Amino acid sequence: MKNQKLPTHIFPKPITDFFEEIQKKNGFDPAYLSGAYLAILSTILGTNYKVYINDRWSFFPTIWLTLVGDSGTKKSPSIKPITAVLKRINDTKYAEYLVQKTLDEEGDKDKITSSQQSIVQDTSFEALVNAFQSNPVGVLLLIDELRSIIEDSNLLSKSLTKLLSIFNNESISINRKTNGEYVKIDTPFMSILGGIQTNLFDELLKGGRLDSGFVYRFLFVKDSDVKTNGTLDNIDSTIEKNFEDYLLKLIDSNTTNSDTPIRIELCCDAKNRFIEWRETNYDKMVNTHNDTEKGYLSKMEEYVVKFAFIIEASDSISTGESLTHITKDSVERAIELSNYFITNFTNLINSTNNKKAKEKSNEEIIKKCVVKVISKLNAKAKKEICKELSQEGVKNCDIQKALFISKGGISEYISK
Description:
By secondary structure, the chain is of the alpha/beta class. The protein folds into two domains: 8-357, Rossmann fold, CATH 3.40.50; 377-413. The protein has 13 helices and eleven strands. The chain has helices at 13-26, 30-45, 75-107, 125-134, 160-167, 201-204, 237-253, 268-287, 291-319, 328-375, 379-391, 396-402, 410-413, and strands at 49-54, 57-59, 64-69, 119-120, 139-145, 172-175, 182-185, 190-197, 218-222, 262-266, 325-326. A five-stranded parallel beta sheet has the order 4-5-8-3-9, with helices on both faces. A four-stranded mixed beta sheet has the order 2-1-10-11. A two-stranded antiparallel sheet has the order 6-7. A hairpin with a 2-residue loop joins strand 1 (49-54) and strand 2. It is globular and about 85 Å long.
């Protein structure tokens, strides 16, 4: 099945020019670059703005996005040129923090100085809380492998409820183990950007992450079918500077000292177009027999409006106009983008289901072979196998099932 093409044309020219240049010179996938760009914009906008569909339905532009592809598709390298500006700002703030920390310690040794982070790579829950405290506007959790936050060894894998609260920007709290301090974050904002190998996608669906709706919060960017190695020439410095200046303008325009987020609404035409799309989306939910697809379509409603807002914010830098509302054109482009993500998710789920069906079919074939082999065993052979398994600590009931021995006959093969 062909991978979908992410509609990069929805972004302003300085952005698409940079994507094309990176693809031409380095061979990076424009879909991966676009996905990283969405996550970066989401983080920059953070809690400065709140999008309202109506007075009871509002949200911040949180985005959880993962790049899906086989090993060697350059997922991680594709993220670096997009996050470079935010990383430099992060490094500058850290350098300022070190200077301030020294000054504070000279004046008051008990004073605690915090470093403001925009990018977090420590996946412990306490590290996230620290980041929220120092940067209430929002942070980006940047991880090479999304799998790292769902492994059993990671405490976040046991904190699905807290992660879902963070996605919904609902208050979270923690009692620090070191000093017993109680910390409460009223409006946490965290976008996620990471990667996962295609053959590990099914791991993401386990551990209650599908039933809880955790998976439905993620947008999945698949690598495109067109692959190129790139010319390996240097990136055009003008194109790169235009991209970086564009992001810096967006960052500067979102620097505010206000604790109250700016209210952003859909204009009348935009709202009518969203309502029209929503009705179509609802019909798809009703008609599908796939509960997984239904759950994803449901979560896409908020994402369409988030996309429209992010697109509008991106456009505002080109036009120089104030960001006050969402236009119909932005909603149209957001719908196109949502179709890409819906199709990607559906394809990934179908591929996973086909993989499971094939594995089950193979298991059935192996089982038939085993049954035939066991049926040929005489009592002496079974007795020897039972003795070995028993010595290895295998339970009698399991031996009985594996070798198709009757419940009453197990004692004939295993001495008590």
